[in-house]
Design the sequence.
C-alpha cells in the first residue's frame, strides 16, 4: 500500500463549489504539506503543518484552507472554487531528522469549469 | 523572486548524449535535494547533498553541491529515454522552515 494517499485522484467541479482534497499517510511523519503544480511554475507551497497543532501559510494560501485532523491526515479545502485553481495538487510528508525529505502522494488533478 | 533558479528550463537531447542541469541561488542552504518527477506521479527523491563541495554518484547521475552551498548541479552521462522527466532541486534553509523548490528542468531523451 502507498505510504501517502490522496483522494480523489481526479475531480471536475464548477465555479463557486466547495471542494475538499484529502491526504492520509502511514509513514508516521509529523510534517505534512500541500503543494500546487502548474506548467512552468513548478511546485508552489500552499500550506504546511509541522505537527497536529501547527498550521502555516505557504506561498499561495489565498482561496485555500486546511485542517490537520490527526498526525496522519491533512485536508485542503477550496471554499469557493474558481477556474484559476485548476491545477495538479500534491500532498507530501517529511521527517525533520532526514533533512525534511519530501514523500509525495500521487496527486489530485482538479479542474474548475 | 525565485529563491532557487534552475536552468535550463527545457532540454531535449538524443540518447547517449551527456547533459548538465543547474540549480543556483544567492542564499546558503544547509542541504540540497534533487527529485525526479515522471508524468502522472509525484516527485521522488534522487539524492541529498549536505557538505559544500560534496559529490555524489548514482549510477550515471553525478550530483555536486557548490563549495559555498549556494548552488548545485546534476550531470547525466549517456542519457537514456528512461531519464526523461522533470528534475527539481529543493533547498533547506537554516531554521525551522519548509524546503524551497526550484521550478524544474524538463528533460526529454529521444531514442
Sequence:
Amino acid at each position: 500500500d502507498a505510504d501517502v494517499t490522496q483522494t480523489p485522484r481526479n475531480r471536475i467541479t464548477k465555479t463557486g463549489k466547495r471542494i475538499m482534497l484529502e491526504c492520509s499517510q502511514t509513514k508516521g511523519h509529523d510534517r505534512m504539506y500541500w503543494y500546487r503544480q502548474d506548467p512552468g511554475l513548478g511546485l508552489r507551497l500552499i500550506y504546511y503543518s509541522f505537527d497536529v497543532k501547527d498550521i502555516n501559510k505557504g506561498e499561495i494560501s489565498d482561496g485555500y484552507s486546511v485542517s490537520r485532523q490527526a498526525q496522519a491526515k491533512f485536508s485542503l479545502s477550496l471554499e469557493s472554487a474558481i477556474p484559476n485553481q485548476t491545477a495538479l495538487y500534491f500532498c507530501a510528508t517529511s521527517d525533520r531528522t532526514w533533512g525534511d525529505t519530501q514523500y509525495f502522494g500521487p496527486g489530485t488533478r482538479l479542474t474548475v469549469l | 523572486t525565485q529563491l532557487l533558479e534552475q536552468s535550463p528550463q527545457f532540454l531535449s537531447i538524443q540518447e547517449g548524449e551527456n547533459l548538465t542541469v543547474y540549480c543556483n541561488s544567492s542564499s546558503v542552504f544547509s542541504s540540497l535535494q534533487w527529485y525526479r518527477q515522471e508524468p502522472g506521479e509525484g516527485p521522488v527523491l534522487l539524492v541529498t547533498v549536505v557538505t559544500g563541495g560534496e559529490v555524489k554518484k548514482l549510477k550515471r547521475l553525478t550530483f555536486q553541491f557548490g563549495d559555498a552551498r549556494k548552488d548545485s548541479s546534476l550531470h547525466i552521462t549517456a542519457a537514456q529515454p528512461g531519464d526523461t522527466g522533470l528534475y527539481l532541486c529543493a533547498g533547506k534553509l537554516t531554521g525551522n522552515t519548509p524546503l524551497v523548490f526550484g521550478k524544474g528542468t524538463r528533460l526529454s531523451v529521444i531514442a
Q: What stands out?
A: The CA atoms of residues 7 and 50 of chain A lie 21 Å apart. The interface with chain B takes residues 4, 33, 40-43, 45, 48, 50, 58, 90, 92, 94, 98-107 of chain A (CB under 8 Å). The mean pLDDT of chain A is 94. Chain A is about 0% helix and 60% strand.
